[in-house]
Amino acid sequence: MNTPRHNDLDRPEVWQARVDLAACFRTAAALGMHEGVCNHLSFMVPGRDDMFLVNPDGWSFAEITASRLLICDFERHVIAGDGVPEDTAFYIHARVHRRAPRARAAFHTHMPNATALTMLDGPPLLFAGQSSLKFHGRIAVDDAYGGLALDEAEGDRIAATLGDADILFMRHHGVMVVGPSIAKAWDDLYYLERAAEVQRLAEATGRPVRPIPAEVAERTAAQMRRGGDRDSSGLHLASIKRQLDATAPEYRQ
Predict the structure, then answer these.
(1) 2 assigned to some structural domain
(2) Which of 33, 56, 159, 201 could make an S-S bridge to 111, C-beta 3.0–4.6 Å?
(3) What residues make up the domain containing 228?
(4) CA 95 to chain centre
C-alpha cells in the first residue's frame, strides 16, 4: 500500500468523503447503474485542488469500501491506496477535474437507460416528465464519439464539451454527471437514470411523446433549483447511507 505523503489526507473530512463516495458506489451497484468492473466515480480530496478519490481498476462498484478508494494526483501518481486507476478513469476524470474546478465530483457510468438515450437520434432527454425538468438547461451532448479515452487529449475534449453543463450525454458511450459535492452528483445521477427510464417506457409504447410546454418547463426547473431550505440531495445521501448501515455496513471500512 502506498504511504500518504501528505498529512492532511488523514483529516476527518477526507474520511467522510471516502464513506460518502463508497455509499454511492454500493447503491449504484444495487440499482444496476454500473457495468462490470468499468465505470468510475471520483471526488476531489476535501481541501485540495490537486488530488482526487477514485475507484481502483478491477473492482466492482459492489466491492468498494471507504478504504479501498485511491487518492491520485493529476500526474497519475497513486498517493494513497492499493492498486491503480483504470486507464479511462484517469484520462477522463483527471482532465475534467483539472479543467473544470467547479466539478468537485465527477460520476461517469454506462447506466442502461441513460446510455440507451445516447444511441438515439435527436436530443437524448425529452422534457416530458417532471423528473426530467431537474436537468432543464443543464445538459450538454458529446456527439464526437471516437473510441476509448486513452490519452489526455480525449479527456480535455470531453471536459471542453461539458462546458458549463452539469450533465454530459456521451454519444454511444454513457453519461457524465458533475457537481460541487458528492450528494449533489449522486442525486443527479439517480434522477437522471429514473428520468431516462420513464422516457424509454413512454417511447416503447410507440405513441408520440408529449413534451411539457417550454414556459412551464423553465418555470418548474427554476423551482427545483431554488429548493427552499430543504437540502434534498443531502437528505438523499443520508438515506442511502442509513440503508447501507442496515444491510452492508462494511462499506464504511
Answers:
(1) no
(2) 33
(3) 7-245
(4) 15
